[in-house]
Design a protein that fits this description.
Helix 5 (about 95-115) crosses helix 7, helix 8 runs antiparallel to helix 9 and helix 9 (about 215-225) runs antiparallel to helix 11. The strands form 4 sheets. The protein has a 5-stranded antiparallel beta sheet with strand order 9-10-8-11-12. Strands 2-1-5 form a 3-stranded antiparallel beta sheet. It has helices spanning about 35-40, 45-50, 65-75, 80-90, 95-115, 130-140, 150-160, 185-190, 215-225, 250, 270-280, 290-305; strands at about 15-20, 25-30, 55-60, 65, 90, 120, 165-170, 170-180, 195-200, 205-210, 230-235, 265. The chain has 12 helices and 12 strands. It folds into 3 domains: about 15-90, Hypothetical 12.0 Kda Protein In Nam8-gar1 Intergenic Region, Chain: A (2-Layer Sandwich); about 95-165, Arc Repressor Mutant, subunit A (Orthogonal Bundle), CATH 1.10.10; about 170-280, Alpha-Beta Plaits. About 40% of the residues lie in helices and about 20% in strands. The longest helix is centred in the middle third of the chain and has 22 residues, at about 95-115. The N and C termini lie far apart (about 70 Å). By secondary structure, the protein is α+β, with helices and mostly antiparallel strands. Pfam families: SBDS_N. This is Ribosome maturation protein SDO1/SBDS N-terminal domain-containing protein.
Length: about 300
Amino acid sequence: GAKGNKGNGPSSSGSQIVSLKVGKKHFEILAKKGAVAAYREGKMDLEDALEIDEVFYDAHKFTKCSSSDLTAAFGTSDQLDCCEKILKKGTFSLSQAEKKEKLNAQTDAVISELVRNYKSIVTHRSPSRDQVQDAIKTSRVKIEAEKPVHLQVDDIVDKISNTLKLTRHETDYTMRWDGKYGSVLSIIKRHAKVKGISKSADNIFTADVGIPPSEYDALIKELKKPTNGDYEIELIEQAQPMEKPGPGLSGFGPSTEKKKGKGKKKETKAAAKARYKATAERQIPPEEEDPLSRMREEEDNAVRQGE
């Protein structure tokens, strides 16, 4: 089995403690630093991941568990088997290096999201990675490593607005699907912004959603599995942005903000895809930009040069 540190037995200071509560009992094991994630990703064997193959009530004090408690909790008193179950399911604290790595990856994901799915209110073009990075730094925005990107990005856009004014680059659609396909709404929320939603008496959901061009293909692809294509998606022509989501968002009541079907046009998925590609590739020439915005930009540049 895995052995403790030579000489003085196991040491909890250089290890990761993995904890698991089963019923009223609390169990802990000692894993090597950084080994939990590696083991769970299949990059490390069980015995290589463990500092020692023993289960404790308290790993700091090395208070060993009784065989009867292990059997009651895990169905076996075999230490290695119990360690494996705790290593797979237990909670653990990340090392500083792991925390930093996770935060860096999340920051990168946030920047990618803003570059891909947002555009400048002034230039109507996507910001560069450097612009977004600088805005996040200047505005001292705290990115949360554990919170999904789509749940924190709106807040980040709001916080950096003094430095970089962005708006989501999206097209509005109405989508309908049967409530029996349970995972549809969570899939939509991963790729699009739900602006209003209602549910009919016969369990049919209707939602107004804003889909960024870069997310359209992924959304359609992901919806195929749970629905087998059994849903509707309609383009809303000249959609007006909603002031606020309708009451349907929380209680599935009829949303007062719902579009009444005017200006809606059925669009095939292929046509939508082609139009999206055209939209995504199109760059707005300078003469189409708001002249006031351009004047402000020129003034800002002049001020910067004068500093």
